[in-house]
Amino acid sequence: MARKVEDLLSGLYTLYHKSGVNRANLKQHFRELHMKALMPTRVGGTRWLPHLFKALDHFLRGYAGIVRHLEEKAVIEKYKSRPGPKLRAVLYTDSYEGVLLKPTDADQHDKAKNELIDSLCRCITVRFSDVNSGVLQAMRLTSFQCWPEADTSSDFGDEEVNKLISHFRQLLLSAGVDVELIPDQWTILKTELYAAAFSQGTFEKTWPTVNRMLRHRCPDVLDLFDALLTIPATTADCERGFSVMKQVKSDWRSRLKGETLSDLLKTQLCSPDIKDFDPTKAIDIWHADSVRSHRPDFVHKHGTKGTEGGSDSDGTTSEEEEL
């Protein structure tokens, strides 16, 4: 699901970023709907999490304008009746980029073009079909921009929370979350936020603030929102893991067992920074689990070295001393 969301946001950004005509048409639809023009933004990059939140925020708040623009098919279907600028550059010349073009049947060309456009329109319809329903629609609760200005409805968000509980039940149970308490805690969460002048703008509308304020009263519902907000937006973690695996399992260590490799990767990827790492527990495990008992407190007493044969000053060899 996260991959689908990322592909959707990336596709919208590419569609409007690379075409001034598309941007102008979208802005015109926003003006007709009396909405603020929120253009799709970039996903990913070094600051991928803020970029993702901004892209989701613009998409959710500008959803009506984007859908209206795409439903009219002013971007794609108009090319059924007339060729676009790129196609005109090919049709009205015998060459393209210095390459001589062979003439083709006009009817066959138009048929292939219309089939391609129809296929694109179907794919867009399928891609947008589940945005306004199901789990994706319920995840709008994570954006405070989608909350009403005043809690005029006592059951606001109840249906969405139930959908999220049903979808993520196994994940929540495995994390020790009491899913039966989430609906009641959701009601408490709403009440407390609106009582804290949430709708008047005097309250900082961020989830870290809500966690600090209500973690002791609504732990389970906040765990649900934490799960929604930590869905990875990219495959960067997987790629980082493969990169570390190549460093660990090199040509010189190609016979590492799977269990050993897994332990080494966990150490590399999941361990805290070296300055924050407390080795006491690891040392205790190493000391207790060995076949032969370790002697970390043992101090080898070196005698005075002799002049010949490695003997000490009293005439006994080092081997005899150890025995």
UniProtKB/TrEMBL annotation:
Q: Where is the HAT C-terminal dimerisation domain?
A: 216-266
* Name this polypeptide is given: HAT C-terminal dimerisation domain-containing protein
GO molecular function terms here?
Answer: protein dimerization activity
For this protein, the record's InterPro entries field holds: HATC_C_dom, RNaseH-like_sf
Q: What are the start and end residues of every segment in region (Disordered)?
A: 297-323
